[in-house]
Amino acid sequence: MSDPIGSRRLRKALPAVASIGWALAASSAQAQTAPPFAQLYLDTREAPRQVELDAEIHRAEGLALQAHARPNPTVSVMTENVAGQTPYRGFDRSENTLQLNQAIEIGGKRASRIAAGTAGVAAAQARTREARLAYAYDLAMAYGAAEIADRRIELAEEEVDEASGDMRAVQALVQAGKEARLRALQVETEVNALRSLVDAAKAERVGAYARLAALAGDDAGFTSLAEPLLPRFEARTGYGPIDPLETAPYVAAQAEREAARQRVSAARRQANPDVTVSVGVRRLEIDKANALIAGVSVPLPLFDRNRGNVNAAEADLRAAEARNAGMLLNVKAEIAASLALNEAADARIAAADRTLRTAEEAYRLARIAYEAGKSPLLELLAARHEVGVARGVILDAAAARLESRARLARLEGTTITGEPVQ
């Protein structure tokens, strides 16, 4: 019997379904494959975080440029002896003066200010390089997180396939009357639970790719990677050495200390008074004559000797020196930890590989024994579970090695793929 109401509902729903389809197609068209990591890092020069770092250098350069500026001259016009009592009622006895005043900085004020500006640029450049290395580290971790998310989906789907194979084997024994129906239900329940893990892994993948695109400054987003990053790393016989004095954090701390030292010098010299030289022309109307005038003025430093700014600059210098000393200790500790973590990561990968091979062989034998009726179902399920755990351990070990390599590259002043960071 026909269902006209259902047909009308279907016709009404078709436009909405079509619009959803077009939206999904459009989002798929906009999505793109992330290039290899080295290329992706080069492509992120216009990412918001990178642009912010460039602005920091431009700010320091602007301040350094301003430090070169000399005081502006002032021009004054003055009229005297007018609009008074007789005989100064009109302008016949007026004296009109045009005067140029120029302040002259003495005591090395301008030179110290320029030196402080130059040191500020050097400090900004050092800080920016350190921040770029931090950005390269974060980008590598985001890239690796996206790849790990892909791998987790693959592992989850592989475990579902293996569990489905076990379920078929159990169902065959149930049909043959060699296994209870309860066993088939147990395996089916486990298969459904594993499928839910696949869905959870896919949701995590969406977040990982979204974070990678946001960090790279890409509006379209990524859905895949052009080149895996994890297989690039292999075990090495040794790591280092790394000179702590050449690391970006310590170089930045040194530059900050030098900039603070120059600011102290500039603050001290700022207390020197400026000399103002005045030159002008005066018109004497009563004599119908012009005369030159000249003068020099010097402020008396009785009340303002710039002591507050000097004290503040000296405190900044003490703090910068303390940070520099502390940074050296931190960098040395970070280098030692990074070298040890990389060696441990290689050992962890090797151990995980051996564990996986053992677990896979145990699962193969358990499957044969179960199908032959020589072992219970629980042993088969436990053996397969151990395989899944071993695969997860390998992936976790690969993620740990990725992080340790990224930390080592950051200390060496390169990206995780070896490109130098400026």
From TrEMBL:
InterPro entries for the chain: MdtP/NodT-like, OMP_efflux
GO molecular function terms attached to this record: efflux transmembrane transporter activity
Coiled coil: 146-204, 303-362
Protein keywords: Coiled coil, Signal
Record's signal peptide: 1-31
Family of this protein: Belongs to the outer membrane factor (OMF) (TC 1.B.17) family.
The name this protein goes by in its record: Metal transporter
Organism, scientific name: Novosphingobium resinovorum
